[in-house]
Amino acid sequence: MHKIVVVEDSTIASMAADTRFTNAIPCLQNQSAVLRPKEASTCGPCARNRAVAQRAALAGIKMCLANLSQDKKNELKQLLDAQQVKVVFATASGQIATTTF
């Protein structure tokens, strides 16, 4: 068991692709399509729009994970095989917040 797991963008992408996480954690449902890397595009605006959508989705997921109910937080810790989970996210006002549970 890991002492602490820091939820990063790559961690979220892995969790969104795993049905164990998507079935248990509502924040991750229907997010794999947005977070999945797409083929390289020669269209610059398309790539920028995709990057903006991915950043927005990741920010929303992090905020959602930080605000999970205690039952869901415990379930997430169990799925991650961690004693503690740390989530760093931007609040609605733009400040950086850290939650450890």
Main beta sheet: 3 strands, mixed
Number of spatially distinct domains = 1
N-to-C SSE series? EHHHHHEE
Into which percentage range does the β-strand content fall? Answer: 15-25%
Write down the overall geometry.
globular
Secondary structure tally: strands: 3
Structural class label: alpha+beta
First CA to last CA: what distance? 15 Å
Unreliable stretches (pLDDT < 50, length at least 5) are none
- The side-by-side strand order for the widest beta sheet comes to 1-2-3
Helix content: 40-55%
How large is the count of helical segments? 5
The residue-averaged pLDDT reads: 90
What would you report as the Rg, rounded to the nearest angstrom?
A: 14 Å
Short structural description:
By secondary structure, the chain is an alpha+beta fold. Helices cover 51% and strands 20% of the residues. The chain has one domain.
Layout of secondary structure:
Elements: E1 2-7, H1 9-16, H2 19-24, H3 32-35, H4 44-66, H5 70-80, E2 82-90, E3 96-100
Parallel strand pairs: 1-2
Antiparallel strand pairs: 2-3
Structure description:
With 101 residues, the chain is α+β, with helices and mostly antiparallel strands. It has one domain. Helix content is 51%, strand content 20%. It has helices at residues 9-16, 19-24, 32-35, 44-66, 70-80; strands at residues 2-7, 82-90, 96-100. It has a 3-stranded mixed sheet.
